[in-house]
Amino acid sequence: QVQLVQSGAEVKKPGASVKVSCKASGYTFTSYDINWVRQATGQGLEWMGWMNPNSGNTGYAQKFQGRVTMTRNTSISTAYMELSSLRSEDTAVYYCARVVFWSGSYGMDVWGQGTTVTVSS
Amino acid sequence: EIVMTQSPATLSVSPGERATLSCRASQSVSSNLAWYQQKPGQAPRLLIYGASTRATGIPARFSGSGSGTEFTLTISSLQSEDFAVYYCQQYNNWPPRGWTFGQGTKVEIK
Lengths: 121, 110
What we know:
The structure holds two protein chains of two kinds. By secondary structure, chain A is mainly β. Chain A contains no helices and eleven strands. In chain A, the strands form two sheets. In chain A, strands 2, 4, 5, 6, 9, 10 and 11 form a seven-stranded mixed sheet that branches. A four-stranded antiparallel sheet of chain A has the order 1-3-8-7, with no helix packed on it. Chain A is globular and about 45 Å long. By secondary structure, chain B is an all-beta fold. Chain B has strands at about 5, 10-15, 20-25, 35-40, 45-50, 55, 60-65, 70-75, 85-90, 100, 105-110. In chain B, the strands form two sheets. In chain B, strands 2, 4, 5, 6, 9, 10 and 11 form a seven-stranded mixed sheet that branches. A four-stranded antiparallel sheet of chain B has the order 1-3-8-7, with no helix packed on it. In chain B, strand 4 and strand 5 (about 45-50) form a beta hairpin. At the A-B interface, strand 4, strand 5, strand 9 and strand 10 of A face strand 4, strand 5 and strand 10 of B.
């Protein structure tokens, strides 16, 4: 079945970086874009950015420009999101999601299970 | 950045009743709007895209309407499994830049 499986929970110190992986299976990885979305505890969803796994093209929310990097390894159907200069406010669950396109409309139809990143000294 | 504002923050509804959730955009997003449902401890689930088209497998009791800056998600007869948080999200550009979500509406049992 179509699924995205993310890497496990991380605990990082302020100022460090974290790299979360998202492995796709059940479909052609390079045929669908990937978004990254995060959610702090008890808070709403926050869109972080986008990557085209075929071309490697990316686009980031202005808030994360300069701190986030989205990459992929097509040989293992895996997308990555790296966030640097971590601060306590980055403590959240990070999700990857597949983007589908239907007649000019978009939606994130398959989501990873989420990766908890905790930033604490 | 386009700001999405949802109302109300919390909606108390009895099972079997109708629920109407609102989402307003700070500028026109045409019909470039999706709705997601999220239950505690779970990832979001796509319900509606293109403002009014149900995603695969979504029951007919869920319907979306609106365009421009005003959107509505209606659940015609609430089932126990529908109590959750609902988010609207605009995708008014491609490739994506500045996609934004509303802050969510929690639908709780009255």
